[in-house]
Design goal:
Blueprint (H helix, E strand, L loop, with lengths): L15 H12 L4 H12 L3 E2 L22 E8 L13 E9 L6 E5 L5 E4 L2 E2 L4 E2 L2 E4 L1 H8 L4 H20 L5 E6 L3 H8 L2 E5 L3 E9 L4 E2 L2 E3 L5 E4 L3 E6 L2 E5 L1 H9 L3 E2 L4 H24 L5 H11 L2 E3 L5 H7 L8 E4 L8 E4 L2 E4 L3 H11 L3 H7 L8
Parallel strand pairs: 1-18, 2-9, 4-19
Antiparallel strand pairs: 2-3, 3-4, 5-8, 6-7, 9-18, 10-16, 11-12, 11-15, 11-17, 13-14, 20-21
Helix pairs in contact: 1-2, 1-7, 1-8, 1-9, 2-8, 2-9, 3-4, 5-6, 5-8, 6-7, 10-11
C-alpha cells in the first residue's frame, strides 16, 4: 500500500505544470543555470506523494527507469476534495493518459471515458475490500477511496485506478498526478482570464442566476450526477459556441459540464473541453507570463501550489528539464471511439464499451507507435 506523506492543504493540479515551468522559462530565454534555480523555487512546495503504489511493472518486464525515451503520465481529475466526503466514495471525473514520444518533442492526451466498462482488480484499502470484477472505470478510484478521507483516499483511489489501467492497457505510468478542478480558480485568478474557443453551446447544470442576479443552482442533481429537474426562477449559465475568455468561476463551471451540450456528445464532449482547456491555460500562461517578470513567478507558484504528483523517483526539476522541448502546440488531443458513443446496458448499468480500434490505440501507446496508428486512423485526432 502507499505510504502517507505530509501534504499541503492546498489542492492539486498536474505534473504537466512542472513541464510548463520549463516551457515558460526556456521560451523566455533563460539559461540552464537560471532555469534550474527558478524551477527549484517553483517546485519546492509541490505535494509529492506515492500515488501509483504497487502497480509496478512485472519483474521480467524491461523498464527504462531514466527520463529518456517515451513516457506515460496518468492525470486524474476529481470534482470534490476528499476532506468533503466523510469517507464516501470519491469518483474520478476525468482520466487522461499523457503520452510523450521518445524524443520528447510531441505529446498526446488520450481521455478514457469514465463510463468505460473494464475489469477492476481485487483490492483492499485497509478499510474496505472487494473482489475483482467488471464495472465503470471511474468506479476504480471510488472503490479505492471507500471509507477513507484526505491523503489516504487520494493515494488508494489513484492506486486502484492505476492497477485498473494497467489491467486494461498493459501500461504502468512513469508518473502520475491528481487534478482538483477547484484548483483552477487560483491559476485563473493569477492569469486574470483564460481564453479558448467553445466548440458547442454548453448549458451549465451547476451555475445560474435568479431574476435579481444572484448566483444559484439551476437544476436539482441526482446522487449519480445526472439532472433531475430544473429549478424554477433560475436561468442557467450558457456558454455559446465561439470565442470566450473565462473568469475563474466560469472556467471551473465550463470544464465540468457534460449533460446539456448542444452536440449531445456527453462525456466525450467534457473530455474534449477539458483537453482544450488544459492547452488553453498553458497557452495563456505563456502569453501573459513571459513578458512580465513580476507575473511569471506568481503563475509558476499558482501552478505549483495546486498540484500533487508521484514523480516516480526523479526530481520534479529533472522532469521539467527533460520535457522542456515539449511545446503546447505539439500536444495532440485524441478521441477514444472516434468521439462517438458506444453505449450498452449491462447488469442494469449504462456503460461505454471501448471499440477494437480504441484497444489498438492503447496498445500503440504502450509500444510508442501512436504516430503510425493515427496515420491509419485520422478520425481519432481532435481537430478543435
Amino acid at each position: 500500500m502507499a505510504t502517507t506523506g505530509k501534504r499541503r492543504r492546498t489542492p492539486r493540479w498536474a505534473l504537466w505544470t512542472a513541464i510548463l515551468g520549463a516551457v515558460l522559462l526556456v521560451a523566455g530565454g533563460g539559461g540552464a543555470i537560471g532555469l534550474k534555480v527558478t524551477l527549484q523555487a517553483a517546485t519546492k512546495s509541490i505535494d509529492q506523494v506515492d500515488l501509483i503504489g504497487p502497480a509496478e511493472p512485472h519483474p521480467t518486464e524491461k523498464v527504462d527507469t531514466s527520463l529518456n525515451g517515451a513516457k506515460n503520465i496518468l492525470l486524474v481529475g476529481i470534482d470534490q476534495r476528499p476532506d468533503q466526503t466523510n469517507g464516501e466514495p470519491l469518483r474520478s471525473d476525468s482520466i487522461i493518459l499523457l503520452h510523450i514520444n521518445k524524443d520528447h518533442s510531441s505529446g498526446y492526451m488520450i481521455s478514457l471515458p469514465r463510463d468505460s466498462y473494464v475489469t477492476i482488480p481485487a483490492y483492499d484499502n485497509g478499510k474496505q475490500s472487494r473482489n475483482s470484477g467488471k464495472d465503470k472505470i471511474n468506479a476504480a478510484f471510488a472503490y479505492g477511496t471507500w471509507g477513507l478521507t484526505g491523503d489516504k483516499a487520494l493515494q488508494h483511489g489513484f492506486e486502484l485506478l492505476t492497477m485498473t489501467i494497467k489491467e486494461l492497457t498493459g501500461i504502468t505510468p512513469d508518473a502520475g498526478a491528481i487534478i482538483d478542478f477547484q484548483g483552477f480558480r487560483d491559476v485563473v485568478n493569477v492569469l486574470g482570464k483564460v481564453c479558448m474557443y467553445v466548440d458547442t453551446t454548453t448549458t451549465s447544470i451547476h451555475l445560474g442566476k435568479t431574476k435579481d442576479g444572484k448566483t444559484a443552482k439551476p437544476f436539482v442533481i441526482n446522487k449519480t450526477g445526472t439532472v433531475n429537474h430544473a429549478i424554477s426562477g433560475v436561468k442557467p449559465n450558457v456558454y455559446t459556441k465561439g470565442n470566450h475568455c473565462f473568469n475563474p468561476s466560469q472556467a471551473l463551471d465550463f470544464v465540468r459540464q457534460r449533460d446539456l451540450l448542444e452536440d449531445h456528445s456527453l462525456d466525450y464532449g467534457r473530455q474534449r473541453h477539458q483537453q482544450q482547456f488544459f492547452k488553453a491555460i498553458i497557452n495563456q500562461a505563456i502569453k501573459d507570463g513571459l513578458d512580465s517578470p513580476t507575473k511569471l513567478p506568481k503563475i509558476l507558484g499558482a501552478f505549483g501550489k495546486a498540484m500533487t504528483v508521484d514523480k516516480r523517483g526523479h526530481e520534479l526539476i529533472d522532469w521539467a528539464l527533460a520535457m522542456r522541448n515539449l511545446k503546447p502546440e505539439k500536444l495532440v488531443t485524441i478521441k477514444t471511439n472516434e468521439g462517438r458513443l458506444n453505449s450498452a446496458t449491462i447488469d442494469g448499468k449504462s456503460v461505454e464499451k471501448l471499440s477494437d480500434d480504441t484497444m489498438d490505440l492503447l496498445k500503440s501507446i504502450k509500444k510508442d507507435e501512436i504516430d503510425n496508428f493515427l496515420l491509419s486512423h485520422p478520425k481519432f485526432v481532435s481537430t478543435n
